[in-house]
């Protein structure tokens, strides 16, 4: 009797976790699939990853990363020097286009996409997207 109650409790917890996880993955996929065609193309993936990283860096949500916000980023040596190189118009703010251009040149987002694209068809299907990769896992050469 005790074993069957424990089994029911564990099964119930796993079911709730699976439903929550499945719902979260479905929402993540829909968010990344901007044109809602049922797959995530390379461009959608690249823009989503960069926008997500930029938004996390922009703590005050003013659509620019300030030098103060930049100093909180992890894994960057010579933060002031790197900030100046990303801030191409020298206005002491990194806009999304500046961040995006830098990431396009100095990151491995392309390789990250290829790793996720298990069937190598050039697009990510729902079963290939289990998480949004954290930008810190995507290497940017600073």
Any overview of this molecule?
By secondary structure, this protein is mostly helical. The protein has a single domain (33-137), classed as Recoverin, domain 1, CATH 1.10.238.10. Helices cover 55% and strands 3% of the residues. It contains six helices and two strands, in the order αβαααααβ. It has helices at residues 2-32, 42-57, 67-70, 79-86, 96-106, 109-116, and strands at residues 40-41, 123-124. It has a two-stranded antiparallel ribbon. Helix 2 packs across helix 5. The longest helix has 31 residues, at 2-32. The protein is elongated, with a radius of gyration of 19 Å. The N and C termini lie far apart (60 Å). The model is unreliable at 1-20 (pLDDT under 50).
Determine the structural class based on helices, strands and strand pairing.
Answer: mainly alpha
As residue ranges, the low-confidence spans are 1-20
Q: Looking at CATH, which topology would you report? A: Recoverin, domain 1
Name of the top-level CATH class: Mainly Alpha
- In CATH terms, the superfamily is EF-hand
Major beta-sheet overview: 2 strands, antiparallel
Tally of separate domains: 1
How many helices in DSSP terms? 6
- Inertia-based shape: elongated
Question: Overall mean pLDDT score?
Answer: 81
Instruction: Trace the largest sheet across and list its strands.
Output: 1-2
CATH hierarchy: architecture: Orthogonal Bundle
* Fraction in helix: 40-55%
Query: What distance lies between the first and last C-alpha atoms, to the nearest angstrom?
Result: 60 Å
Radius of gyration: 19 Å
How many strands in all? Answer: 2
């Amino acid at each position: 009797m005790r074993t069957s109650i424990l089994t029911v409790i564990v099964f119930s917890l796993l079911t709730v976790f699976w439903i929550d996880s499945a719902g979260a993955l479905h929402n993540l996929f829909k968010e990344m699939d901007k044109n809602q065609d049922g797959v995530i193309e390379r461009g959608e993936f690249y823009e989503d990853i960069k926008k997500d990283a930029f938004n996390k860096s922009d703590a005050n949500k003013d659509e620019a990363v300030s030098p103060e916000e930049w100093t909180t980023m992890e894994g960057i040596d010579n933060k002031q020097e790197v900030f100046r190189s990303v801030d191409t118009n020298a206005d002491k703010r990194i806009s999304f286009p500046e961040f995006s251009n830098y990431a396009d040149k100095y990151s491995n987002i392309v390789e990250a996409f290829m790793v996720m694209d298990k069937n190598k068809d050039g697009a990510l299907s729902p079963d290939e997207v289990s998480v949004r990769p954290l930008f810190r896992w995507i290497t940017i050469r600073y």
